[in-house]
Amino acid sequence: xxxxxxxxxxxxxxxxxxxxxxxxxxxxxxxxxxxxxxxxxxxxxxxxxxxxxxxxxxxxxxxxxxxxxxxxxxxxxxxxxxxxxxxxxxxxxxxxxxxxxxxxxxxxxxxxxxxxxxxxxxxxxxxxxxxxxxxxxxxxxxxxxxxxxxxxxxxxxxxxxxxxxxxxxxxx
Length: 172
Ligand SMILES: Cc1cc2nc3c(=O)[nH]c(=O)nc-3n(C[C@H](O)[C@H](O)[C@H](O)COP(=O)(O)OP(=O)(O)OC[C@H]3O[C@@H](n4cnc5c(N)ncnc54)[C@H](O)[C@@H]3O)c2cc1C
Fold this sequence. Notes:
- By secondary structure, this protein is mainly alpha-helical.
- Helices cover 34% and strands 7% of the residues.
- The protein has a domain at 90-172.
- The chain is built from five helices and four strands; from the N terminus they run βαβαααβαβ.
- Helix 1 links the parallel strand 1 (10-13) and strand 2.
- Flavin-adenine dinucleotide is lined by residues 13-19, 36-39, 76-80, 83-85, 87-91.
C-alpha cells in the first residue's frame, strides 16, 4: 500500500458526531482539517439488509462489545464514516433545563451550559440539521397506537423530533 502524505492544521481521528462537529467548527474558522476514519464509507444502496451483513459492515466488532461489570450489557458502536450517526435513530432532544441546572451546580460548568448560549446552539443545530417532528406518514404502528392512547386518555404527547426531514420511512 502506498503511504499517503498530507498536511493540515488539524488532524481529527474519527468522523462521528464529535469529530465531524470539530471539523466543521475548525474549517469554518479558516483552518485546514484532515479527518481519519477507520471504517468504510457506507453507500445506502449497498448497505446490507440482513443482520450479519449489516453488523459486519457498520458495527465495531460486529456489535459484540459489552460493558464490564456484574451485569454486562451490549454496547453498540459504529465503525464507519459518520460513526454512530450512520446507524442511530436521528432522535434530537434538547438538554432538559433541570439537567442543565444540575450539571451547572454539581460540576461547575457555568458558561458552558449557559441557558441563552445553549438555546442559541440548539436553534442553530435544529436549523442546520433540518430537525422536525416525525410526521404521521412515517409513524409505525406502535407510534400511531401510542398517539391514539394518549389522545383517549387526555395525556399530552407529541411525535419525537428527528434529523430526518426527507426520510422516506425505508428503515435505512
Ligand atoms: C444504535 C445507536 C442508536 C443511537 N440513537 C441515537 C439517537 O437517536 N439520537 C442521539 O442523539 N444519539 C443516538 N445515539 C448516540 C449517538 O449516535 C452517539 O452518542 C454519537 O454518534 C457519538 O459520537 P462520537 O463522535 O463521540 O463517537 P462515534 O460516533 O462512535 O464515532 C467515533 C468514530 O471514530 C472512529 N475511530 C475510532 N477509533 C479510530 C482510530 N483509531 N482511527 C480512525 N478512526 C477511529 C470510529 O470508527 C467511529 O466512526 C445512538 C447510538 C447508537 C449506537
